[in-house]
Design a protein that fits this description.
Length: 223
């Protein structure tokens, strides 16, 4: 079974690159974090993130990952609840799996407090919250984060829009033959684009640029 290693500035980008090269989705892969990114001392000799990936060997591995996901969800939910308490926010925390993605859901509590501040402009605060949860899970379990934090369904709504946009551009590129670039997205959303366009056939995608302007370009396949 093919196994590859890839490095990048972040774990998410390294995973994205590995999945792209293997030609599989995240649900079809087993991914091991070899090295977390480090800024080095005073910015000298920074270390990139490095991951090892291979295709899932069904069905035992898939069952094991599902168990890991459930355990992570419980751990992440407890951590998120602690964060809300520390921030003094009245919020309800829940766990729900939608379309194969397990979400740690944050909703306004009985006080009806505005949760918009946890989302931030273009979801940037939510991305930071996701990074806190990812780091906590990595420290406590030693495993790659398998859950997504969502605030009042922002992430799910955004996912639906990204899928629609990717399908629209994919069909257009397939018809015209002219490459098109989508707007800058985070690693989670770029992966959605890769997976969605991959389902169309006859097309290929590539992530280009540097964060926070990293984006996906869709082209006709050369293979």
């Amino acid at each position: 079974m093919e196994e590859i290693e890839r490095s990048a500035a972040s774990v998410e980008e390294a995973v994205e690159a590995a999945l792209k090269d293997l030609g599989i989705s995240e649900q079809e892969a087993v991914i091991e974090i070899i090295q977390e990114p480090s800024g080095g001392i005073l910015g000298i000799k920074p270390q990139p993130a490095m991951v090892r990936a291979r295709a899932v060997a069904p069905p035992a591995v898939a069952e094991e990952e599902e168990e890991d996901r459930e355990e992570q969800a419980d751990t992440a939910a407890d951590y998120a609840e602690g964060l809300m308490d520390a921030l003094g926010l009245d919020a309800d925390i829940g766990i729900r799996t939608v379309d194969g993605i397990t979400y740690i859901e944050v909703w306004a509590g009985a006080s009806g407090e505005d949760m918009g501040l946890l989302i931030g402009k273009h979801g940037h605060t939510l991305d930071a919250l996701q990074e806190l949860v990812r780091g906590h899970l990595q420290r406590t379990t030693g495993e790659r984060c398998l859950v997504q934090v969502d605030v009042e369904d922002y992430r799910k709504r955004r996912r639906s829009r990204v899928i629609s946009r990717a399908r629209e551009i994919g069909r257009r590129v397939k018809q015209s033959g002219r490459p098109e670039a989508l707007e800058p997205m985070n690693a989670f959303e770029r992966k959605i684009v890769h997976d969605t366009v991959g389902e169309i056939g006859g097309l290929e995608t590539a992530s280009e640029g540097e964060e926070p302007a990293r984006h996906v370009v869709v082209r006709r396949s050369t293979r």
